[in-house]
Amino acid sequence: MLGDVLDMAKADMAKRQRPLTVDIPRPGDEQPVWSRVGVIALVGFVVGVAWPKLAGVRIGPTVPSDVKATAEATAAPASPPPAAAAPGSAEPEAKPPEAAAKNQQQVVVGPGRITRCSDKKNKKVEDCGELQFDPIALPRLKELAQCPAALGVDGKLPIGFELNFEKKEVQVVKGKKTSLPASTVSGILQCAAREFSNVSLEEVPHKYRRYSLVYTATFYPPGAQADAAKAEAGGGEQEQAAGTTTSETAVSGLATVSWDTALVRGAPKEGDVVMRLVRGTRVKLVGRQNDWYKIEHRGKTGWMYRGAIGL
């Protein structure tokens, strides 16, 4: 026992008597092993970030459903609702005219009338029948609201046309009985001549060589309320018509609006909306052009699609 203790004391004394050595590491030995660092970072990413997503585990709090729905609805662009179409309509219901239109120059043009026609021998014909020129004339005449000479004009202007089917020419001429200044009339007629400069007569059915037509354009200055019924009723010259520029036929009778809301237009199909009538409204029938009926209601006239009155 005593021997063991002595041996341990000798060993301890031998360690103390060893020389002290100091190891100084080289600069390269202190650099980290980058491959090990990359492996450790990859393992940390998989464990801390990728694994919760792959496993469908949410580490943080979730957004409340009602707040999320509100945020998505706010971020999503709102699309305008489609225009409602009445049942059986051949065209979609048009939107109501904007109030801003009242602050613009407006032009109301009614159907034209034939004042004269002549045959191939240039002989005057008493009954010229009909010439479907309204689909060509009315849209172009309404563009006169943009004519600089028409700005602020308030009044009626008969505008005449000379159609020569032999030469395929359309000539704009001055009508009669207008209270507008001569300079204004000249400027408006120049605008009209430009509007009709490229008109083709190839697709206009006709029976005679030459026709003289007249349309009455009623101008309303900005802020005035255009009244299509009054414009048409007060139209034009008192000279007896030799024919009509539409295929309108006279009808008579009463009808009842069958749609929830029916549009009444100033001209068939593409005319401006002049009235809106609700289901059950009684109207008077005064004319017809293909699938459109000309009606009267409370002193106003317009065109209504036949399906709107159950015809």
From TrEMBL:
<feature type="region of interest" description="Disordered">
    <location>
        <begin position="70"/>
        <end position="107"/>
    </location>
</feature>
<feature type="region of interest" description="Disordered">
    <location>
        <begin position="228"/>
        <end position="247"/>
    </location>
</feature>
<feature type="compositionally biased region" description="Low complexity">
    <location>
        <begin position="85"/>
        <end position="101"/>
    </location>
</feature>
<feature type="domain" description="SH3b">
    <location>
        <begin position="264"/>
        <end position="307"/>
    </location>
</feature>
<dbReference type="InterPro" id="IPR003646">
    <property type="entry name" value="SH3-like_bac-type"/>
</dbReference>
<dbReference type="Pfam" id="PF08239">
    <property type="entry name" value="SH3_3"/>
</dbReference>
<feature type="compositionally biased region" description="Low complexity">
    <location>
        <begin position="228"/>
        <end position="243"/>
    </location>
</feature>
<protein>
    <recommendedName>
        <fullName>SH3b domain-containing protein</fullName>
    </recommendedName>
</protein>
